[in-house]
Design goal:
8-stranded mixed sheet, 35% helix
């Protein structure tokens, strides 16, 4: 018996080929198991097709499934009090140096068992799934000791409803027990890496290269340890100042550099040469009331792929709406609606080193979304509205 499913009567934004949006006005898809078997105009459907199931979409827009390529979903507690303090004038750096910021989340995370961490993270992920997310990256970095980092990564691996890619972010902040011994902590982060990899918990290695994080030299040590294990790297770079972290990451052909408000022209050139994705995080930009824009024009001119993500975390981007990030990417960073959508599909996949998703194309995963809109530009036009009708993940249908 055939396991082919036909989806017809769709407006397709394939994001494939040379046409804007990869647009097919009256299109169809055929899925077979977890893969897309055929995409094209409905008038060109293969002859003799005998699908096991058929869906008439009535002109709904179909896009690739959304990909949230930078999140910190696994943690304990919340930091609404710090939000209030910032409104009274305290800076992110001042809060961090006073023991707040990441350290306060570390304490709450260490105090939660694995079941509780999973419960909290699944609830956060469910909000993303309800807006069409089919792949998500989840970082560690709130445990900051071997057992807690492993617990967070195991919780991430156990999340249900989307494919989860994990990034080891041990070099996120300095835990209190290593106060004044930052180099010793970096050595520990590197020493934990082989065990975590052996347990199947790491897809990539990340670090926070910043004045309140880790120096370029310390970041290099982390990246050398990752390289020795054959693990790809990513970097939180140039968020609050220009540390030259982007150029360093590009020496290791980083999958992505993320934030990038203070990215220099030299950093842009390095990214273009290494094929590294620029992941922009408008939620953090907005929440911190940042005023320095990432150099979107330079990135465009250099042909650097631009991804967009929620950066969901408790301190600087507590959003759980990737659709809102589309709007913010357009209104705050002046991306076009098509650039924004590519930022959460094609380029987000690339930021995770994935080539089997992000477009509607034969051979890709059957991850796509059916939207009650007339054109995909509406996805970034509205905010506070969720027009998702169906989310298809690996060929399985989940109704909104």
């Amino acid at each position: 018996m055939s396991d082919k499913t036909l989806w017809r009567g769709a407006r397709l934004a394939t994001l494939d080929g040379t046409q804007p949006w990869g647009w097919v006005e009256r299109g169809a898809l055929i899925t077979e198991g977890e893969r897309i078997a055929w995409v094209g105009p409905e008038s060109e459907l293969p002859a003799g097709l005998a699908p096991a199931a058929e869906h008439e979409l009535g002109g709904a827009v179909v896009t690739p499934g959304l990909i949230d390529c930078h999140t910190h979903l696994v943690y304990g507690g919340q930091r609404a009090r710090e939000f209030e303090l910032r409104l009274h004038g305290a800076s992110y750096e001042e809060i961090a140096r006073a023991g707040g910021g990441i350290r306060s989340t570390v304490a709450a995370t260490r105090g939660a068992d694995e079941a509780e961490l999973l419960r909290l993270a699944q609830r956060r992920l469910d909000a993303l799934l309800a807006e069409g997310v089919t792949t998500v990256e989840v970082k560690s970095g709130y445990g900051l000791d071997l057992d807690s980092e492993a617990r967070c990564l195991r919780a991430a691996r156990a999340l249900q409803g989307a494919e989860v890619r994990t990034s080891y972010l041990g070099a996120h902040a300095l835990p209190p027990e290593f106060q004044g011994r930052q180099d010793d902590y970096v050595e520990a982060v590197c020493a934990w890496m082989p065990r975590l990899q052996r347990e199947g918990l790491i897809d990539a290695v990340d670090a926070f290269c910043e004045g309140i994080g880790f120096t370029p030299a310390q970041t290099r040590r982390v990246f050398e340890a990752a390289r020795a294990l054959g693990l790809p790297v990513k970097l939180h770079a140039e968020q609050l100042s220009d540390q030259g972290g982007t150029q360093l990451a590009c020496e290791y052909r980083a999958l992505s550099c993320d934030h990038l408000e203070y990215l220099s022209p030299e950093g842009v050139r390095a990214m273009a040469a290494s094929g590294t994705v620029a992941t922009l995080l408008p939620g953090a930009y907005y929440f911190l009331r940042e005023t320095k824009l990432p150099p979107v024009g330079l990135l465009r001119e250099a042909g650097v792929p631009i991804a967009i993500s929620t950066d969901h975390n408790p301190g600087t981007s507590p959003t759980l709406s990737l659709l809102l990030m589309l709007n913010m990417a357009c209104t705050l960073f002046r991306l076009t609606p098509e650039e924004a959508l590519r930022g959460v599909t094609v380029n987000a996949a690339r930021a995770l080193g994935l080539t089997d998703r992000g477009r509607l194309r034969a051979g890709q995963r059957a991850d796509f979304c059916v939207w009650d809109v007339e054109h995909p530009n509406e996805l970034s036009y509205y905010f506070g509205r969720n027009p998702l009708r169906q989310r298809v993940w690996g060929g399985k249908v989940f109704r909104a």
